[in-house]
Design brief:
The complex is a heterodimer of chains A (115) and B (112).
Chain A (H helix, E strand, L loop, with lengths): L3 E4 L2 E4 L5 E7 L5 E8 L3 E8 L6 E2 L6 E5 L5 E5 L8 E8 L10 E2 L3 E5 L1
Parallel strand pairs in A: 2-11
Antiparallel strand pairs in A: 1-3, 3-8, 4-5, 4-9, 5-6, 7-8, 9-10, 9-11
Chain B lengths: L3 E4 L2 E5 L4 E7 L6 E7 L6 E7 L4 E4 L2 E6 L4 E6 L8 E7 L8 E2 L3 E6 L1
Parallel strand pairs in B: 2-11
Antiparallel strand pairs in B: 1-3, 3-8, 4-5, 4-9, 6-7, 7-8, 9-10, 9-11
The chains are: A mainly beta (115), B mainly beta (112).
Chain lengths: 115, 112
């Protein structure tokens, strides 16, 4: 019953460093998402992948890139980290995505600090 | 742009009392309204959802009501228990989009 697994759980970066957040789901879901959570701002969509082989921008894509490696895995890359990217990052998945609005399954999050 | 406003930001209730959290959405085309509960150190989990063709939905101590005319929906928790303490998020979405617009969250504290 792993569901959505994110790594790492915590990360500290210096400004300008790069890193990749990993996400994998074992529910055979088609759609995957990356959100960031900031105090007082709720959850905001960074990028999503409607299905294997496709990716699209969400509300706040600047400074990020994504890769849908296969149906299970969806990674988020920060090429040159900035303090404004300090946040908690959540990966999520859903069975069929926007075709029918449905439940999102979230991972446990990655707490990222950029100094 | 699309927006979901959520109130209150914090809510404290005595154990056994009821709690109500309210959300207002801006996009009249929205037709799906989920509620998520986030416990400390965990990701959000869906607790109940409602679609625009329904006015109310209940699941044990939890209920959601929807007023399409006023574009607002509410979460009602009755007989609150300490384990209900968490942050609750409302969201709005519409068919054909992969984008869920989330509210800013309500921190609920149930006092024993």
């Amino acid at each position: 019953n792993a569901g959505v697994t994110q790594t790492p759980k915590f990360q500290v970066l210096k400004t300008g460093q790069s890193m990749t957040l990993q996400c994998a789901q074992d529910m055979n879901h088609n759609s995957m998402y990356w959100y960031r959570q900031d105090p007082g701002m709720g959850l905001r969509l960074i990028y999503y992948s409607a299905s294997e082989g496709t990716t699209d921008k969400g509300e706040v894509p600047n400074g990020y890139n994504v890769s849908r490696l296969n149906k299970r895995e969806f990674s988020l890359r920060l090429e040159s980290a900035a303090p404004s990217q300090t946040s908690v990052y959540f990966c999520a998945s859903s069975e069929r995505g926007g075709l029918t609005n449905e439940k999102l399954f979230f991972g446990s999050g990655t707490q990222l600090s950029v100094l | 742009g699309e927006n979901v406003e959520q109130h209150p930001s914090t809510l404290s209730v005595q154990e056994g009392d009821s709690a109500v959290i309210k959300c207002t959405y801006s996009d009249s085309a929205s037709n799906y309204f989920p509620w998520y509960k986030q416990e400390l150190g965990k990701g959000p989990q869906l607790i109940i959802d409602i679609r625009s063709n329904v006015g109310e939905k209940k699941d044990q101590r939890i209920a959601v009501t929807l007023n399409k005319t006023a574009k607002h929906f509410s979460l009602h928790i009755t007989e609150t228990q300490p384990e209900d303490s968490a942050v609750y998020f409302c969201a709005a979405s519409k068919t054909g989009t992969y984008k869920y617009i989330f509210g800013t969250g309500t921190r609920l504290k149930v006092l024993a």
